[in-house]
Amino acid sequence: MVKIGYLGPRGTFTKLAVDTAFNGVETQSFTTIPECIDAVFNDQMDAGVVPLENAIEGTVQLTVDYLVHQARLPIIAEIVVPIQQHLLVSPDFSGDLSKVTNVYSHSHAIAQCHQFLHLHMPDADMGFTTSTGRAAEIVSNSSEDIAAIGNSLAANEYGLRIHTENIHDYPNNHTRFLVLAKDKNIASINHEAETEKTSLLITLPSDYAGALYQVLAAFAWRKMNLSKIESRPMKTGLGNYFFIVDVNQPFDDVLFPGVKAELEALGCNVTILGTYPVYQMDL
Description:
The record marks 175 as: Essential for prephenate dehydratase activity. This protein is α/β, with parallel strands linked by helices. The chain has helices spanning 13-21, 33-41, 61-69, 107-112, 114-120, 132-140, 152-158, 211-220, 255-265, and strands at 3-7, 26-30, 47-54, 58-59, 75-82, 86-89, 102-105, 125-128, 146-150, 161-164, 174-180, 195-203, 226-233, 241-247, 269-280.
């Protein structure tokens, strides 16, 4: 049976993405994103699912940096899941939010709910956890007046009550999850793909005027649509960056080799991180 690792414990949005996308697989949770990626890299898991980007809070930098610098794995699919953040409390909580002393969740989840927390629990201390599932677990094991931010799956898994639904600041809240695996055919997803995408890792030569413009021009004159371009430090010194570029089309034998040859002629290094289907999930 195919083994799929995910950012756990139970009740995380990553687990929700796995349950929605896959059938008939064995799943295992990991405490951190690096642990999940390492498990696939070291052949403990056939595939791993990790968060990449949230519509409100942006890129999960740890995923990008670890994938680039520590354990380079192919991206075989992207899963986009709508995110609904709820305020979770123990079943016997009085209901008075002014009594809540601490609110626990992943840093991204807390940031997504800033306005609700500011208006209703301005004096509560924020406790950052490795995942929303872990936050729910903390509340379930406590007798104090504390709360967690998480999803309905976490509430069910840990016997919590949803005090307030949909407390995120913006309604159009989605998260992109990457499916990482050495074998792109390791597992099938139970939905039709919305589109296909190719992600490239590009490093520029020593900085000179117009370098980034020339990189973008290689895509522009070929009329290749870029859905995202993001820079991250190379960790080799100040001012040294790599770029992650998402192109809204699958890899082909004409345009992409042309782009790669043109960029390499400029002194860039180009690595294909994956060409993969994108799945939009409805929960």
